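Office hours follow-up: a student asked to see two folded examples consecutively, so here they are.
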Amino acid sequence: MKTIDEMLHLELLSTEQHAFIREWIAQSRTPERILQMPAPMWQALEQASERMGIDQDLLREPALDEGFTSLP
């Protein structure tokens, strides 16, 4: 829910879209049910995700810090 709250804060979702998506997710008991969200809401969510660069973040190689040490 934090991500859709951020989308609202950044004005990437309208108040109505945010409320609908938040309620849909809260009422959905399974991932399959979430995937049944109406197409216009999925489109709004996809557009907001694209503008936030969420897909790029998920596809980016993990940063390897020079100071990283392996666990014993």
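And the second, which I mentioned at the end of office hours:
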Amino acid sequence: MECSRRSEEIQSLTVEIVQEVARVAGEEVTDLPPLGQTIDIEAVERLAQTEDTRIEFRYLDYEVVVADGNVTVNER
């Protein structure tokens, strides 16, 4: 049971990141490459669960920040 919840949480964060990048880029989510080709999604999810953690990485031409339960996407 815990594994399925974990999987849902990872998918939720992944979906949120990709949706936000697509929105900022003016693209369809399906037109973007898989996020897992850029980062270790499970590692980001684990770190995102840690209090006062800020995670930054590049995805395409954008800087993605995951902090305090929020996803922010900025053009680089």
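Two things to take away from it. The first helix runs from residue 2 to 25. Helices lie at 2-25, 41-48.
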